[in-house]
Amino acid sequence: MEMTTEAAAVPSIEPEQTTVTVDVLHTGAVAIDRALAYEEQTWHPAPETGWFRSDSNRVWVPVSAYLISHPEGPVLVDTGWHTDVRTDERGHLGRVLSSMFDARLPDGAAVTEQLADRGLTPADLASVVITHMHSDHVSGLDLVRDAPEILVSERALADATGRFSQNRFLAGNMWDGIEFSPFGFEESGLGPFGRSHDLFGDGAVQLVWTPGHDEGQIAILARTVEGWVLLTSDVIYGRQSLQDGSIPGLTTDREAARTSLEWVRSVADRSDCVAVLPNHDPNVQPGRVTSQ
Ligand SMILES: [Zn+2]
């Protein structure tokens, strides 16, 4: 799959267009093998699992969620860890996932606790948007089940719930009884493969198809008064990948992962891009995103 120049094109921001604000929430942390975040050349067949790997490869990184404030209502992006990981991490993650990584959720950090701090309940949200179905992004789904709608791309949902899904880092119990509103991508010309979904129909929040780490993964382009904010989800694990070009160690399609990474780089290079925020980058601080 080749990225065309027009496909990479992000529109310029015009005065009078609707803008949003973006808040970064750290909804706990996860200890992962470094090879999950940055692909390694090694004799090991699956270093991203951390199995039979030295503890020195293990790093704690934040698990982010985001609150986007649009005039039509607040949008929560991803859900962080469920409060169950505080008392029964193994039960919540299951045997396989808990052998790959550790979860940590400090008091007050759960997504609903942070919404409550802002005087919000899940029912007050316009929607919840899931970037992909890996456990660290959907663990808290049950906490926000009262949201008016929970959006996920048709491809991400099919990839996660297919009978023969080979997708790692999934835990089906995390979406038990959750009613999703799956969305398809439009041939918009936006993104590495020219496909995206315009959440409110006004261009302010674009859900951009960025496959590679996961078939149906999206990145989110949010238009703020200061410029574009790009939430990369796990297209890259840290901004270090903008420099060294490393893709995640866990991919469903390495070539697509590279194309998605190149698109993220092309957005980062724009003068009207305020911030590029990988979900698990330890250097990204919680709070309102501004150009400062
Ligand atoms: Zn992740």
TrEMBL record:
Residues 62-280 form the Metallo-beta-lactamase domain. InterPro entries: MBL_superfamily_lactonases, Metallo-B-lactamas, RibonucZ/Hydroxyglut_hydro. Its cofactor is Zn(2+). Signal peptide: none annotated. Pfam families: Lactamase_B (PF00753). CDD domains: AHL_lactonase_MBL-fold. Keywords: Hydrolase, Metal-binding, Zinc. It comes from the Archaea. One of its GO terms (molecular function) is metal ion binding. Belongs to the metallo-beta-lactamase superfamily. This is Beta-lactamase domain-containing protein. The lineage of its organism: Archaea, Methanobacteriati, Methanobacteriota, Stenosarchaea group, Halobacteria.
